[in-house]
Design goal:
Order of helices and strands: HHHH
Radius of gyration: 21 Å
Mean pLDDT: 78
Number of helices: 4
Number of domains: 2
Length: 81
């Protein structure tokens, strides 16, 4: 993990203590879970890939059919909740 490389760049320590701050400890634990879980890494990868693909498709559609995208975005702006 990046935190390990910052704290111990030469890998001299056997164990690195968890941070004292609750927020940093939460990020530390989440990073460890993601690093050790194949399912979590795969899920994050697929979510990011889907978002990038959706962004690319919307960019192409907005170039080819600008009137449709403008009409759709206006309807979203004035939608009543």
């Amino acid at each position: 993990m990046l935190l390990f490389q910052i704290i111990d760049p030469h890998y001299e320590l056997d164990m690195i203590a968890e941070p004292d701050s609750k927020l940093l400890r939460w990020f530390y634990r989440m990073a460890r879970r993601i690093n050790t879980s194949l399912a979590a890494r795969t899920t994050i990868f697929l979510a990011v890939a889907a978002l990038v693909g959706t962004s690319a498709i919307l960019d192409v559609v907005s170039e080819v059919f600008p009137a449709i995208v403008l009409k759709f975005s206006n309807s979203l702006l004035f939608m009543k909740l």
